[in-house]
């Protein structure tokens, strides 16, 4: 079965019942990154798609946190992460699709995000997620440029340019 965004979005009740099986084939071949990118491209072509969720920015000594609230029933994708950090689900339940495969998580839950990770999520309930990054930077624009890449290609170029990071 070829998985398409239409299946995930338009058949939301079926997807909500079995969200991981709907995407299980996405993680079984060498073209994983292309399939994740294809899914995201399809999401942006759907009428009524949201380009960004509101972000709450929090700072503590040596730490930066980004908090997002994902409404129930929403499929969302993130950017490619360039640095290891924590991904905390503090409220709700979601299915997380990553390069290591699909995982359904319920708050409270913490994942460690590795560099090169791009996530696609489906929120079963209103869900609050927070990423926590070790940094002394406080300029959100600089942080965005340092912490994420807009594509896998951009991530690879940056990774090869800074092999010690």
Quick summary:
The protein is α+β, with helices and mostly antiparallel strands and 165 residues long. It contains six helices and eleven strands.
Structure description:
With 165 residues, this protein is α+β, with helices and mostly antiparallel strands. Helices cover 30% and strands 35% of the residues. It has helices spanning 5-10, 12-17, 19-23, 32-45, 140-147, 152-161; strands spanning 55-60, 63-70, 75-77, 80-81, 85-91, 93-98, 101-106, 109-113, 120-123, 127-134, 148-149. The strands form three sheets. Strands 1-2-10-5-8 form a five-stranded antiparallel beta sheet, with no helix packed on it. Strands 3-9-6-7 form a four-stranded antiparallel beta sheet. The protein is globular, with a radius of gyration of 16 Å. The model is unreliable at 1-30 (pLDDT under 50).
List strands and helices in order, with pairings.
Layout: H1 5-10, H2 12-17, H3 19-23, H4 32-45, E1 55-60, E2 63-70, E3 75-77, E4 80-81, E5 85-91, E6 93-98, E7 101-106, E8 109-113, E9 120-123, E10 127-134, H5 140-147, E11 148-149, H6 152-161
Antiparallel strand pairs: 1-2, 2-10, 3-9, 4-11, 5-8, 5-10, 6-7, 6-9
């Amino acid at each position: 079965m070829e998985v398409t965004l239409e299946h995930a979005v338009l058949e939301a009740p079926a997807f909500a019942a079995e969200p991981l099986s709907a995407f299980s084939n996405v993680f079984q071949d060498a073209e994983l990154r292309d399939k994740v990118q294809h899914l995201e491209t399809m999401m942006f072509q759907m009428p009524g798609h949201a380009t960004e969720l509101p972000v709450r920015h929090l700072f503590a000594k040596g730490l930066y946190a980004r908090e997002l609230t994902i409404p129930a029933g929403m499929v969302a994708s993130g950017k490619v992460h360039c640095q290891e950090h924590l991904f905390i689900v503090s409220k709700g339940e979601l299915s997380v699709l990553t390069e290591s495969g699909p995982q359904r998580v319920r708050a409270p839950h913490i994942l460690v995000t590795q560099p090169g990770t791009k996530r696609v999520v489906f929120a079963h309930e209103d869900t609050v997620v927070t990423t926590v990054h070790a940094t002394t930077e406080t300029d959100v624009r600089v942080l965005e440029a340092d912490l994420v890449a807009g594509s896998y290609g951009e991530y690879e170029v940056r990774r090869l340019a800074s092999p010690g990071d």
